[in-house]
Amino acid sequence: MAKGRRSDFVPRGAQPQPSQNNMMQKIQQMQDEMRKTQEELETETVNVTAAGGAVTLVITGHQRVQSIKIDPSLVDPNDVAMLEDTLVAAVNEAILASQEHAAKRLEAVTGGISIPGLM
């Protein structure tokens, strides 16, 4: 070290680099928050209505259907195919809504950083 120079001297305009230890702590904190958010998503639910409100689904942030309610007027024994198609569309819509909910929750933790294999 040159005589008269402080060891913590940073030239004007230069930004000090974060220490590797500090970066590791931030990564560990993000991992902890991700784990907590993933656990919360297991119990968080999204309510979705389809077919003009005739079908209501409740689905978790882990894409697990909790319940399906069907308006009795939708049940026609002579047109089971229509009910089946409506349920498929409603479940797919609910899965999409659940995935969007989970992505928003996880984005809040990652700050928008894409992490391969996360979703």
First-last Cα distance: 50 Å
What is the helix/strand order?
HEEEH
Can you tell me the CATH superfamily of one domain? Nucleoid-associated protein YbaB-like domain
Percent helix = 40-55%
β-strand number: 3
Uncertain stretches of 5 or more adjacent residues: none
Task: Return the structural class.
Answer: alpha+beta
CATH architecture of one domain: 2-Layer Sandwich
Mean pLDDT: 84
* CATH-defined topology of one domain: Ybab, Chain: A
Order of strands in the sheet with most strands? 1-2-3
Rg (C-alpha, Å): 25 Å
Number of helices: 2
Tell me, briefly, the overall form: rod-shaped
Strand content: 15-25%
Mind describing the biggest β-sheet? Answer: 3 strands, antiparallel
Q: Which CATH first-tier class of one domain would you pick?
A: Alpha Beta
What does this structure look like?
- The protein has a domain at 36-110: Ybab, Chain: A (2-Layer Sandwich), CATH 3.30.1310.10.
- It has helices at residues 20-43, 80-110; strands spanning 45-50, 55-60, 65-70.
- The model has no long low-confidence stretch (mean pLDDT 84).
- The relative contact order is 0.13.
- The protein has 119 residues and is of the alpha+beta class.
State the gist of this model:
This protein is α+β, with helices and mostly antiparallel strands. It is built from two helices and three strands; from the N terminus they run H-E-E-E-H.
List keywords for this structure.
single chain; 119 residues; alpha+beta; 2 helices; 3 strands; rod-shaped
